[in-house]
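Minutes, project check-in
Item: structure for the 76-residue chain
Input as provided by the requester:
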Amino acid sequence: MSKSKFVFDKLSKLLEQGLISYRDLSEEILNILKSKRDEIVFKMKLASKEEIDVLKKRVENLEKEIKKKKIKKKSK
């Protein structure tokens, strides 16, 4: 009985170490993929949602100014 318990203990330790190394490996792979994604986004020079909202507001303001200028030209 003691020999089988010894074998089971060794096997359980191996499995435990395997699971821990698998988790570490999977976390490392995810970190690598996230960093690659960030690099690609940076290279593409994509803007964040906040920046896009600010740019939309600027465009709307410029369109309003253009309409006002057109109305002033027509009235003259």
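Outcome recorded: The chain has a mean pLDDT of 80.
No further action items on this chain.
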